[in-house]
Protein: Periplasmic binding protein-like II
Organism: Neocallimastix californiae
Amino acid sequence: MNFRNILKVFLIYLLFLSKIIWADKQRIKICMKQPDMPDNIPREEWERYRKELNNYFIEKTKNHEILNNYEIDIYFYPYLPVESSGQPVALNYMNDLASKLSKKEYDFVVMDERILFNEMALMESPLILSEIKYRQPSLELLHDLSKYINKKDLEFHDPKILSYGIYENKIIGIPFEYDFDVLYYHGKDEKYSKSYNDTQLLLQNMENYTWNDLIKQMESNAQPLRVAFGDDNDLLNFIIEYTSNHYNLSPEYDSNYMDLFTNKSSTNYYTEFRDLVRTFSEKNNARNAALTSLDDAYNYFKKNNSSFFKAKASHHYIFRSEYSNYEIPLSLPPKYQTATTHKYLVANKFSKINPELLAEIALILTDKDAQLFRAKNFGSIPTFDFSKMDTDQDLQNYCHDNPILCQVMEKNEKIIH
């Protein structure tokens, strides 16, 4: 072989080597809803979430011969409050997801239980098929990962939360995060001393109060309250909590519990609910209450124009960031009944990534270490089985770092929906 040929071979080898070294990592595309307080959570924080989760994944897979060539790319879906368009937000979201999943735009979606399997509810709606073009999108668009996952690897999850991601023994959704509604209130700050003292009287009776009782007493104290009804999920959470104060909504207790919303007596229910909603806005205007976003409610609270801020338990992280070491105290809602939210990681059946690899990625992003990482860095609440607290050091460590959240989790009467 002459010198020219040797040089050519050498250059080809260098070119090949450089492609291996400098090749872009393949992207794992994950879709999740944007933060539900976009005005108060800066874009920099969204970017930090994206960057930190990717760094976590890269560190976890650095010795994996296949996954070390992948990186995480998160897309924050603009899930806007219902008042911005007047359209059913959830249906538009499902329609958009169905289109983008079939076009392979996402490999995974972080999806809450109100979307996952909702087409298999008590009543099947023809609207799903006509709008989304799939009769059962949860099964037709999402992977069943049960062939690739050992259920023992999922035993650290709360059994109920885990079960809501499984349909007829098919593992469709793996628990990603847990959340529940709370009432934040002002602490012992001179600026808010009267508000604090008045609120303490309310808190003493919170476990026995209904929402009606609480509002009546607040009106007597001349204490304002603004609640976010501009987001469909926040509105539904309040409806569930309010109704559960008066009725048992468990299908185990009454399989026909949905009749409450459709029978003849429902007129009184809706009238009473409307009148209550009016009290949450200036001039008793129900429309104004329905247009209040979570950001609006938080701004009212910061200006002391609302005695409580009704939000998610995970929002405590915002206070930590904004007020440094100052802890904003919190309480469970009336009767200690709180609406819960469970988020699941689901895999796209149309993804170009091998399903066995998708399952492995899903486990890395939802295992104990990943959930504790997100809890520490972003305030998310793990989906752990806290009944194992006495024997699980990880749970003990979490509650040592988050004592207030663990205390209220022990007391709350979860409303599963």
Remarks:
- DSSP finds 17 helices and ten strands in the chain.
- Confidence is low (pLDDT under 50) at residues 13-22.
